[in-house]
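Below is a concrete protein record.
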Amino acid sequence: MFIKIRKNCGILLEQNGLEKRHLVPVTSNFLINLNQVAEVSFYTIKEEKKRLDLEHHEITIPVHTRVIHLQMSYMHSSYKETVNNQKTSMADRCFYKLYFLPEEMGQYDAIRNQIEGLVLNP
């Protein structure tokens, strides 16, 4: 099953393919395959956070911003051969964090309800 993320000026995206602490606005529609998601969490930002856009300008994430954090399965990960200068292998799973600003209307609830509809023990 796929969920559709619609372009919207009230949604920001963070994922580990970007530099740390960087966010991008969702400027086009895209789909996420829920069959490839291993973990999902929902939470609300309790204090302002500072992040950066792609041009390294500071963005303030306001209080009451809602977040959907999608952690992908191990099949969708990259592997590091050295960790802390030692030969080892570590899986770095892909994740997506969708930030729904307080003024965003409705898409957060629609996506959350769709995901929770797939839960067997609500």
Notes: Helices lie at 107-116. The CA atoms of residues 45 and 64 lie 5 Å apart. The first strand starts at residue 2 and ends at 5.
